[in-house]
Amino acid sequence: MDQPAHTYPQHIRAALKLALPLTLSNVAQFAIHMTDTLMLGWYNVTALAAATLASSLYFVIFIVGAGFAQAVTPVVASAAEAGDITTARRATRMAVWLSIIYGVIVMIPFFVAEPILLAMGQTPAVAAEGADYLWIIALGMIPALIVMVLKSFLVALEMTAMILWSTVVAAVLNIGLNYVLIFGNFGAPELGIQGAAIASVTMQVATVLVLGAYVLRRLPDYQLMRNPLRPDPQIMGRVFRLGVPIGLTSLAEGGLFTASAIMMGWIGEIPLASHGIALQITSLTFMVHIGLSQAATVRAGRAVGRSDETALRRGGIAVTTLSGIFVALTIAVFLTVPEPLIAIFVDADSPVRAEVITLGVSLLAFAALFQLVDAAQVMALGLLRGIQDTAIPMIIAAVSYWVIGIPTGYLLAFTLGWGPQGLWLGLVVGLAFAAVALTSRFWRRRFKHPMTSGTATL
User: Fold this and answer.
1) Are 260 and 59 in contact (CB under 8 A)?
2) Fewest beta carbons less than 10 Å away: which of 45, 136, 279, 309?
3) How far apart are CA 322 and CA 296, in angstroms?
């Protein structure tokens, strides 16, 4: 275990050491979704629009359940710092339980997705293809959630190399399967959007098997398979109480983007495709801030385990500063070279290529401002999760995104007639409110001391 950091340069180095592999693994993970978008864009615009909408809906449901996995990180980090292996094992095992229960429940609506998409106002063609994607991708929900639990466990222990390499291999596997199944190469049937879904499910199953084997071999002291079927109500309740607010916070934010995709679909298929491309590019650069936020959660959790208020404060300043530096770089790129970024997502022979690129470039300009406030709020969330403060941030997020962001976007896009650009400005307003409120809460709040397992040996 590394020695605790004391000075600001030490905190920056510690944060970078943890955040760099996490960022790269997040980029690799995101590359899986971007590959689907890119290859389906080459296939046809209808498939791209359907995948944009369907994957947004899937992601919203997924991130709620991923809250149980994310709760593992602060609990295991603080427990490991205190030498409490028992609590780390129990929390991880119960997170797997909760993930499986959740996955079974939420799979059901995916099998009747077409009427749901039609009821949302989507065109019959987009609804049909979106439903084809969703019923297949539903089969990967439980493996994907368990992968999240295992990754969160490894992140808490600052063992990030395997997370990186397993995700890179998964991304490569997904690209290969997409190439074969979407387009029907090497004698395979041409499955289009269904091929992309099959590739994703295959990749999730392979990843959970690899990570599970790695954890059992490299960390035998934690005995994660000890009593796997034994209920543990105490620690399950703790993971549930932490995880539900995290998941609902993610739902509030993810729902903001899903609602924007639905409303963009009301404007038209080309705006929806342009929106999906701009959002993919913005999300890719945002992986850096997510990596830093995850590092912030771990560093804050370890400070809690040591009861070190100074380390918590200095670590928070260090990660926030690193995030701000990358925001400045991102804004410069978005404002100076937007067109080449948008163009790579659209087939050169597409009759609507010029329209998609023109609108996408204008949205990317709004994304520069969007990146600033989105980075600020995710950094604050990471620090608050590290001190196991999740309930009030959930309320702040819900108000920011749904009481402020969505109504503002609708007002600007439809009532005032600003169209797609107005919708994106509404996103910025909601995220800005969240950034200010969450950041203020962290810097005004002292951390809570971790709960330990006492004499329990489950």
Assistant:
1) no
2) 309
3) 11
